[in-house]
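Hypothesis: this fold can be encoded by more than one sequence.
Test: take the structure tokens below, design a sequence, compare later.
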């Protein structure tokens, strides 16, 4: 797989964070903590945070990425 943190742009990352918050995968505080970091660190932190929360959270992350950036999702073979 290609280097995922380098492939996600800022608008897609913001949509992912909003969706994860809406779906209650992350808290508002977690979202704000992530938003205070550099883009690559944001992506890594989101992945780590969500993966620690289990398979249901991972599924929401993947579905949200597929919705936010269909092209990148296909490039990463997520669909």
């Amino acid at each position: 797989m290609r280097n995922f943190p380098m492939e996600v742009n800022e608008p897609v990352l913001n949509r992912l964070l909003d969706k994860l918050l809406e779906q209650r995968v992350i808290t508002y505080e977690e979202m704000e903590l992530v938003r205070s970091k550099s883009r690559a660190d944001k992506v890594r932190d989101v992945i780590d945070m969500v993966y620690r929360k289990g398979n249901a959270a991972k599924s929401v992350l993947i579905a949200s990425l597929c919705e936010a950036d269909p092209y990148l999702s296909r490039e990463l073979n997520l669909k």
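DSSP finds six helices and no strands in the chain. The helical segments are 4-7, 10-22, 28-35, 39-52, 55-68, 70-75.
Hypothesis status: open.
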